[in-house]
Amino acid sequence: MLDLVQEIQHLKKEKNATILAHYYQEGDIQDLADFTGDSLKLARAAARVETETIVFCGVHFMAETAKMLNPRKRVLLPDLKAGCSLAESCPAKKLQRYQEMLRENGRRFQTVTYINSTAAVKALSDWVVTSGNAEEIIRRVPVDNEILFVPDRHLGQYLQEVTGRPMILWDGACIVHEIFSVRDLLELKKKVPGGITIAHPECPANIREHSDFIGGTEAMLKLVAEYAEPRDFLVATEANMLWQLQSKFPRHRYHPVPGISCACNKCPHMALNTLEKLRDCLASGTPEITWEPEFARAREVVERSLLN
Ligand code: 13P
Ligand code: SF4
Prior knowledge:
Number of helices: 15
Strand order of the largest sheet: 2-1-3-4-13
Shape: globular
Bound molecules: 1,3-dihydroxyacetonephosphate, iron/sulfur cluster
CATH superfamily of the largest domain: NadA-like
């Protein structure tokens, strides 16, 4: 393992690469990264990378976004099959047909799209949001327009509650956040009296309503930082986030909220990236995310939404 880590560090220098890693990657990958972050922070970091190569340890839509924002760089994804249940739930053709149907029915709307979507879907959108900036972007949508929010119905529901804007919701969900067990959360709360429950807004309403704080992964870190004295946090998001919380704020204790069929809830797509694949992709320069025609329009939407 030490050899593998050293090999990756050596290759990273030799190939003039920058490694970006999402908080849902295993700790040993996050440890090797030049930048770790939530989707928003990583997209912004990708736009500023100066080395020839970006290795994106995350899922496909994240690497695609990095390519859009920094097109002259070679963008590598250790496993090209690292997808996302949210992105899969919203094929571009289906969205386009739905938009046409709404227009034919005289509905005036703007499409607000969660970043967890393909470039082709982003290209059909007016705005792209992340968990870190969604409220702010929704406030930019003119009030005389309806909002079509895709693809995460739980995040959409949550945003309706906090912004007071009714939305037409696409029926997608994250397979990780959707399966937290309310019963086990309530059990855990009994076992950890005084614990603070923090939940990602991709969680369904029945988890959110038992939570003390709702926010994306970056917002969770910010919240935890505000507690100077050691506390217990019950964490309802992908389990690797606990590694990041633990390494930045070791004074606290963190308890994963279990999933319906698992003690700690990990994303199977993120898990496809391993140290071995990271080494291999640095060594071979593949698999690479190549520029696709729809990236040009998607890029405009992403830049307007995330960089300005
Ligand atoms: P954030 O890290 O942006 O909150 O996103 C969570 C997620 O599900 C990424 O796939
Ligand atoms: Fe997609 Fe959920 Fe995995 Fe994030 S955690 S990549 S939203 S499936």
